[in-house]
Design a protein that fits this description.
Blueprint lengths: L2 H14 L3 H15 L11 H17 L8 H14 L3 H19 L5 H24 L2
């Protein structure tokens, strides 16, 4: 990712952070709407799940400018998610739900440049997670 894309993602996430609980709710509602079978992968309280999602996303977004500092943590997430039953094909669906969430939460501020920057960020992060889930199998 180039510096401009990283800054776009980081600045937009700072706008989402204050509405993290609402954003997480939008995310899970969308995820289970487009892929109802994925609901079975989530055990326990979705509110807590949402907090963990937003915290992990915040960590990843903040580390984009120095990806080597977050690579191990992101890979560990991939291995952990494999243990929860997450499969490679699920990452595309999660990415769609994430983009929908950002578009909904940011409204008109979510333009084509920002969409592209988030798609790049998600490709980088999910790629690390997928790679780790395969190599640790």
């Amino acid at each position: 990712m180039n510096k401009e894309s990283i800054l776009l993602v980081q600045e937009s996430f700072r706008k989402v952070a204050p509405i993290a609980d609402a954003a997480a709710k939008i995310f899970y509602t969308r995820l289970f709407t487009i892929a109802p079978p994925l609901r079975a992968l989530f055990k326990g309280d979705l509110s807590e799940q949402g907090r963990m999602l937003m915290a992990a996303l915040g960590m990843a977004v903040n580390g984009l400018s120095q990806p080597e500092t977050i690579a191990k943590t992101v890979r560990d997430l991939g291995v952990r998610h494999r243990g929860y039953g997450v499969k490679e094909e699920h990452y595309k669906i999660v990415g769609e739900a994430l983009i929908f969430t950002l578009e909904t939460g940011l409204g008109s501020a979510f333009n084509d440049s920002l969409r592209q920057a988030w798609l790049e960020a998600y490709a980088l992060l999910s790629g690390l997670m997928i790679e780790a889930s395969k190599s640790e199998a």
